[in-house]
Amino acid sequence: MFEKIERVPGDAILGLIEAFKKDTNPQKVDLGVGVYRDAKGTTPVMRAVKEAEALLLKNETTKTYIGSHGAPSYGEVVLPMVLGEGSPVLEAGRASVTQSPGGTGALRLAADFVAHQLPGKGIWVSDPTWPNHHGIFTAAGIELHKYPYVDADNRLDFDGMLSALKQIPQGDVVVLHACCHNPTGFDLNQQQWQEVLKVLQERDLLPLVDFAYQGFAEGLDEDAYAVRLLAENLDNVLVTSSCSKNFGIYNERTGALIVVAKNNEEMENVRSQIAIVARENYSNPPAHGGSIVSEILHSPELEKVWREELTEMRDRINTLRRDFVDALKPYGLDEKYAHVAEQRGMFSYTGLTPEQVDRLRDEFGIYMVRSGRANVAGFSSENLEYIAKAVATVNG
Ligand code: PMP
């Protein structure tokens, strides 16, 4: 039966991790992985999470199923976190929330919903985008298309993006990264979002806003600008939210699909369909991560601790971005890489070429994806001088 099955190459990032592990260079640096790292290079459990878990251990009374939409206590804190406290969308009862196994699970729910309930609609993703977008949407049977996002000089190509959006067939789905665009780090400003909104309205497009990094760019509310703008001004919006990064609970698989509909009646109709999609995929989402988030956001003390920790992570990333550019000053390369300080989130399209990336790996033990995408959280005050010198060498 299995004789004819071919082996496919593993994930490029996993290969990178293996190569990094084997490298004996004491100065080696891992800029490949997709998780936050602190100054020590570790991804610790956040204090607020530890405390919430201690409470859960003490107080949890059952492990029974939480239902296809997940725990209501989780949904009721995620909605205001994403859409805003006192959001008119919430007041109007036109938002539905479904707990999901991570942002990835939410994307798959959205994809299956589109495939089943809006047949024939194509889906448009930025070029480049998080590679798993391609896999998730095509696995659901949706035709995938791309719109431009980065120009040949490695800068945000907003004009290219906007004119492409204007050509998209009416009613198609457009995937937008709310903030911290993965892989590039280039985000739209508020005025650009307003222009996008106009095109979405004109062409009656359905936005699917991927919101995997709330709190990692400028702040919890600031980062939600696009989500709230679209939700408050459009009849239909899909939002996939993730708590993996902002709560540091990557392996607990905690996310949500939020569907905004025209009114409460339509929302309930859509919501009933989402329950089916969830049931067909995995029946019920895992509970633990959602319980952690709920515990934290229902407790003013824990929420305060969590917000401080999140701010610390965000500030660290943004400081490292500026420090990287500063470290390149002695080599006259600060202007060439100034965009790294302007980008947001964990990732940066540095503009390093695949050949330069190879040299960084082979000559300096600095690992990143060949597209030149670096995880900025892998920078530290100890390694920045070394990285700057290496970048200057491969630019020489
Ligand atoms: N969307 C984007 C753009 C991401 O970068 C990620 C995580 N790498 C996700 C969604 C999914 O996150 P999760 O781990 O919560 O499934």
From TrEMBL:
Keyword Nucleotidyltransferase attributed: no
Cofactor(s) this protein requires: pyridoxal 5'-phosphate
Highest taxon, organism lineage: Bacteria
UniProt keyword Transferase, yes or no: yes
Subunit record text: Homodimer.
Residues in Aminotransferase class I/classII large domain copies: 27-390
Keywords: Aminotransferase, Pyridoxal phosphate, Transferase
GO cellular component: cytosol
Provenance organism: Halomonas huangheensis
Family note: Belongs to the class-I pyridoxal-phosphate-dependent aminotransferase family.
Annotated SUPFAM superfamilies: PLP-dependent transferases
GO biological process, one term: L-phenylalanine biosynthetic process from chorismate via phenylpyruvate
GO molecular function, one term: L-tyrosine-2-oxoglutarate transaminase activity
InterPro entries documented for this protein: Aminotransferase_I/II_large, Asp_trans, PyrdxlP-dep_Trfase, PyrdxlP-dep_Trfase_major, PyrdxlP-dep_Trfase_small
Protein name: Aromatic amino acid aminotransferase
